[in-house]
Amino acid sequence: MSIAKFMQLSAVTELKLHFQQGRYNCYTADILFRMYDDEHNRLYLLYLKSVLSEVQQTIKAFEGEKSDSTKLLNILVYIITSLCKKIVIPTAKINFMDVLKKMSVLSANETLKSNKNPSDIASLAEHLGFKTELIDKIVNQ
């Protein structure tokens, strides 16, 4: 059952009634009844619904055969940022996010530009752990 269907009041009521009937004969039914009967769980699932809908949209974007990798990168950065703000500590600094954002300089649109900013490439190489001598060679090319 999907979260969207579960969140419908009628589905929750039906499941609650179903497990209420068997709760005295079955431990699992009793646990499930108490879970559906608890308003805290319902609030948690409402919160989870928004998170899961974003994840489902991201999955759909990656399922396309002719997807632009730069757009996919932007979608991935967005979903990771969004999840981190909702699930992890909102003020936490995430290093890999900076790397993902900087990797967009390698996209087709950016590499074909005539006025590239060498410091963007140098910054990405630095984040990826390249040594200074090699970074200088990369930038000069």
Total count of helical runs of at least 4 residues: 9
The succession of helices and strands, N to C, reads: HHHHHHHHH
Percentage of residues in helical conformation:
over 70%
Tell me, rounded to a whole number, the average pLDDT.
77
What coarse outline follows from CA principal-axis ratios? elongated
Q: Poorly predicted ranges (pLDDT <50, ≥5 residues)? A: none
Count of domains: 3
Beta-strand portion reads under 5%
Radius of gyration: 24 Å
Structural class: mainly alpha
- First-to-last CA distance: 55 Å
Largest sheet, described in full?
none
| Total count of strands | 0
Please tag this protein with its features.
elongated; 141 residues; mainly alpha
Describe this structure in words.
With 141 residues, the protein is mainly α. The chain has 3 domains: 1-37, no CATH class; 52-92, no CATH class; 93-141, no CATH class. 74% of the residues lie in helices and 0% in strands. The protein has 9 helices and no strands. The chain has helices at residues 3-7, 9-22, 27-37, 39-63, 69-86, 95-102, 108-111, 118-127, 132-140. It is elongated.
